[in-house]
Amino acid sequence: MPEFITIHTARNIEIEYRVASLGDRIIARLIDSIICVGYIFLLIIITASLQSPVFIYLFILPVFFYTFIFERFNDGQTPGKNIMMTRVVSVDGNQVTTGMYFLRWLLLLVDVRMASGVIGIISILVSAKGQRLGDVAAGTAVISLKKNQSRDKAVFRRISPNFKPTFSQVASMNDQDIQTIKKVIKSKAENKHALVTATANKIEDVYGIQKNASSLSFLNSVVKDYNFYQQQLHKKELGRYDEEEIV
């Protein structure tokens, strides 16, 4: 079973999360089962005097759809997952859709109900992303939300929590622009100085940014500001990772 899973978001950010441990997932399932049993026990007491089976079936439906309902309307968490600090996420970095939640719930019959959960456990242990069969089919995974257990490591550098961007216009730039700027900064060409100056001047003209330092320092500031704005956008979209400060 892998310790981490890497998710590539729609904004070209690569995020590494810790995969929820098998123990955490089993305990979360037990907690949810206890809640369901408690609900059924109360249901028996409340509906003891009811004669119509229709009402009884209606009361039982929430138990039947328990996992699907909570994950769909509680951002990928059942009460058990919430207590154990785990969550269902999409492996492609997008929001988990209703269909994805429904499919992974549907396959609970195979993963958990059949063979006393052995099938789901084996799938989690041997799959590359710690997924049960329902996760594989739905394109989801279960991650841990415990502090300092997720980190962004590849495409964008992390920014200090106290960082304040210099150029607000950078927010309208795109990833292709930034990749070009990075290539210029890292260039070892003999005419690098002229290349850096030309790139800085182009950015000033296109985005209306007034350079306040040397061309190279300016380009580095643009990249750092872009990182900041992208991370803010990403936090709003997912809200699932803790920042690791870098200098």
Structural class, please?
A: mainly alpha
- What portion of residues belong to β-strands? 5-15%
> What composes the largest sheet?
3 strands, antiparallel
Q: Specify the helix fraction band.
A: 40-55%
H-E order: EEHHHHEHHHHEEHHH
The count of strands amounts to 5
Cα shape: elongated
Description:
The protein is mainly alpha-helical and 247 residues long. The protein folds into two domains: 4-152, no CATH class; 168-237, no CATH class. The chain is 53% helix and 9% strand. It has eleven helices and five strands. The chain has helices spanning 22-46, 53-64, 66-73, 79-84, 98-106, 108-113, 118-126, 133-138, 175-186, 192-207, 215-237; strands at residues 4-8, 14-18, 86-90, 140-144, 150-152. It has a three-stranded antiparallel β-sheet, with no helix packed on it. Strands 3-4 form a two-stranded antiparallel sheet. Strand 1 (4-8) and strand 2 form a beta hairpin. Helix 1 packs antiparallel against helix 2 and helix 10 (192-207) crosses helix 11 (215-237). The longest helix is centred in the first third of the chain and has 25 residues, at 22-46. The two termini are 33 Å apart.
